[in-house]
Amino acid sequence: LLSAGVQRRAGMCGRFGCTRLAALLATISASLACYPDGHFDHVKRVLHLDDLNSFVRSKTGSGVALFVRWIGSESSECCKRQASAWTQVTRAYRDNPLIAFGDINLEDPSELDGSSFTVRYFTNETSIKGVQCPRSTKGAFCEEMAELELLRHCVE
Prior knowledge:
Structural class: alpha/beta
Helix content: 25-40%
Low-confidence stretches: 1-7, 23-31
Order of helices and strands: HHEHEHEEEHH
Strand order of the largest sheet: 1-3-2-4-5
Shape: globular
Largest sheet: 5 strands, mixed
Number of helices: 6
């Protein structure tokens, strides 16, 4: 974001004033982010499939249910649309010792098994590949997981 001084000199402030404009732009930017500030304080950033396999084994081996959001790109519209619901759910369960969350951003399509977005869960009863959260609608899975209640249903 441009500083208020740069905005003022460029004539970008308009009737709102530069400070208000900067605050508005920061709010919009944060609301459109796939990963809001502090997200990885309670969600593990998974860097690649080997990292995921290790994380799954670690959590499920100790009886923890693990939910991982798979995205093809953090700049994708799908990721941005469902970010609010994902953030609310991960924050709601962050103190539950029996549930953990991860995010894996796989921009290499060969690692996505044909899906650019999914939420999978892993327990000591699933394989290392986990299971996609059950579908509740006939709409796109990305749209479904943007609905807080549908995503919450997956976790509960």
